[in-house]
Amino acid sequence: MTAEPQANETFRVFRKGDAPHLHETGAMVLAAMTPVVAEGVGRWVEAGLHEGNETRVLFSTPHMSLTYAWFKSDFPLPIHSHDADCLYYILAGSLKLGNEILQAGDGFFVGKDVPYSYRPGAEGVEVLEFRTVDHFDMKMKGATSAYWDKIVGGMDAARPKWGSENPPSSPRPS
């Protein structure tokens, strides 16, 4: 578990292996959910949300947080926003953001309350998420059942290959 910050803390080491999963920390909460969105998110979770990604809080203090996320190939990330600015840095793999293909070493900034989504590439994607807060929300934007049908369909199509996938930064067997 990540150590809690101390008063006037000036130095701390953190390790990915010790970092808790985002859903275990309470650092992110779902907000502004209509009944359609709540039902859609429930279906998304049941379709394999936790099989398709790993998200860990590496570091957190009241005015800064760093999260590691690995999304497996073709993971359907719904359009959403957060109540905090976020800077993303791609460690490995690739993703499609709008018409842009971003790869290791690239990144992007998403301002507070700006809706966005991206799609991991064929190898998946590993990203670092930098925020100036330690707690934030996630507001899903899919307002129709048809939208959530598409998200769940994407999960059903991608999920069979996830069991054999490793993070793109992992050494490949020779």
Q: Quick one: CATH class?
A: Mainly Beta
H-E order: HEHHEEEEEEEEH
Can you count the helices?
A: 4
In total, the number of strands is: 9
Number of domains: 1
Kindly report the CATH topology.
Answer: Jelly Rolls
Briefly note the structural class of the backbone.
alpha+beta
CATH superfamily: Jelly Rolls
Strand content bin: 25-35%
Mean pLDDT: 91
Summary keywords:
Jelly Rolls, about 170 residues, 6-stranded antiparallel sheet, alpha+beta, single chain
Describe the 3D structure.
- 22% of the residues lie in helices and 34% in strands.
- 23% of the residues are buried.
- Strands 2, 3, 5, 6, 7 and 8 form a six-stranded antiparallel beta sheet that branches. A three-stranded mixed beta sheet has the order 1-9-4.
- A hairpin with a 2-residue loop joins strand 5 (86-97) and strand 6 (100-103).
- The longest helix is centred in the last third of the chain and has 18 residues, at 145-162.
- Helix 2 (35-46) runs parallel beside helix 4.
- The protein has a single domain, classed as Sandwich (Jelly Rolls).
- The protein has helices at residues 22-25, 35-46, 49-52, 145-162; strands at residues 28-30, 53-61, 64-71, 80-81, 86-97, 100-103, 107-110, 119-131, 136-140.
- The radius of gyration is 16 Å and the shape is globular.
- The protein is of the alpha+beta class.
